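Open question from group meeting: does this chain pack into something compact, or does most of it stay loose? Before anyone orders reagents, we agreed to write out a predicted structure and look at it together. Recording both the input and the output here so the notebook holds the full record.
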Amino acid sequence: MNKIKISLLALALFTAAVGCKKKIENVSEVVTASYPDITVIGAQFVSIPVGGTFTDAGSSANDTVTGETSLQPISVTNDIDPTTPGFYTVQYKYKNKYGYTNTATRFVLVTDISDTVDYAGLYLRSTNSAPMNVTKVATGLYRTDNVGGVPLPSSFAITAYFGQINDSTLVVPAQPTAAGELYCVNSKVIPSASDTLITWAVRNASFGTAQRTFSHQ
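Structure tokens returned:
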């Protein structure tokens, strides 16, 4: 009987010792925050005629930090109404394996302006004669290299895109620029055989809110 008691006591002590050694390990992974690098395939700013069809060239993405290549978008959305002139967007959203997301945008101008209309050329701002070059990109769609009409040289000579949606109305949509997001209000073109004018008020933290007018040279 004593031997049995001793054996049971030894077993109990062994079990207790094993139980004391048991532990729970919480393992966590420290990751570097990174975001998918998205490429909008083709032109980021495009135009289609009213009633036309938009064909999306798509996008691609990778993440050099996580080593992920050929990521697939988790969503592609657009608000394009081909029956109504204006600027619309296509949004491409991606997510990496750690859940960090990023979004890129394509801008689509719907316009009923004739392709023969062309307001490209050199413009001078009325208040300071600062130059602004306007380049025609597509039907009704233009790019300017100095949207604020600042004296050159200057780091605030910002490139921006704008579109013409009727005979007098221009649209400068909210867009990413070297100065951050920028858009314009009260944007118009005043055609003239001798002195076409472009006018708008820039909305961006780096610029004042005054109306800016440019005269074609």
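Observations to bring back to the group:
The first helix runs from residue 2 to 21.
Confidence is low (pLDDT under 50) at residues 1-14.
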